[in-house]
Recover the amino acids of this structure.
């Protein structure tokens, strides 16, 4: 059962590892990120950051889609974390079970504009978010579980 899909450019860190995992009562975290799969240092860092008693799985985006659609993840209370809005959109478009997206943090760059405390988007990402909302996906901005979720359309 997919508990939440979250975009957070930092992937697995304190907020994700403890606050969100606990609030969701998740027993498995799926890091879906092509760059991390081949980066042994990042994988090792994430393995040390995961909460005790919670399974951590790191897969590419395409392997994540296959696993989510195959049913092998159905036994878990799954928390999925991706690095980018584009990766989240790919999962949403290819996995029917995902109907909501949490925006937690995206990096500020010269090409982005700030739409909330920790969410910065490019014009291409804004278009992706508008398309997801138009398709009926519940897209919210929420840094920590204690915050009130803000519908992304209010921030765009």
């Amino acid at each position: 059962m997919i508990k939440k899909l979250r975009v957070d450019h930092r992937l697995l860190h304190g907020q994700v590892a403890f606050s969100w995992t606990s609030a969701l009562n998740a027993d498995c975290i799926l890091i879906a990120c092509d760059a991390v799969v081949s980066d042994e240092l990042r994988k090792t860092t994430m393995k040390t950051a995961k909460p005790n008693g919670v399974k951590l799985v790191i897969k590419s985006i395409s392997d994540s889609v296959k696993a989510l659609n195959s049913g092998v993840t159905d036994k878990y209370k799954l928390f999925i974390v991706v690095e980018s809005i584009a990766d989240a959109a790919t999962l949403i478009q290819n996995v029917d079970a995902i109907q909501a997206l949490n925006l937690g943090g995206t990096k500020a760059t010269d090409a982005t504009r700030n739409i909330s405390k920790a969410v910065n988007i490019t014009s291409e990402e804004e278009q992706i978010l508008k398309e997801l909302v138009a398709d009926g996906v519940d897209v919210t901005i929420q840094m920590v579980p204690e915050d009130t979720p803000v519908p992304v359309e209010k921030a765009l």
